[in-house]
Amino acid sequence: MVRKLKNILFDGINPWNMVKDYAQMTAGLLIYSLGYVLFLLPYKIISGGVSGVATLVFYSTGIHPNLTYLAINIFLLMLAMRIMGWRYFFRTIYGTLVATALIGLFQGIITDIGPDGHEQLRRIVGDQTFMACVIGGLMEGLGLAIVFMGGGSTGGTDIIASCVNKYWDISLGRMMLFIDIVIVGCSYLISQDIQLVVIGYVTMIISMNFLDYVINGARQSVQFIIISNRHEEIALAISERVKRGITILYGEGWYSREERRVLLIMARKYESRHIFQLIREMDPAAFVSMSNVEGVFGEGFDKIKTPSPTLPIGRGE
Question: What is the CATH number of the domain that holds 243?
Answer without folding.
Answer: 3.30.70.120
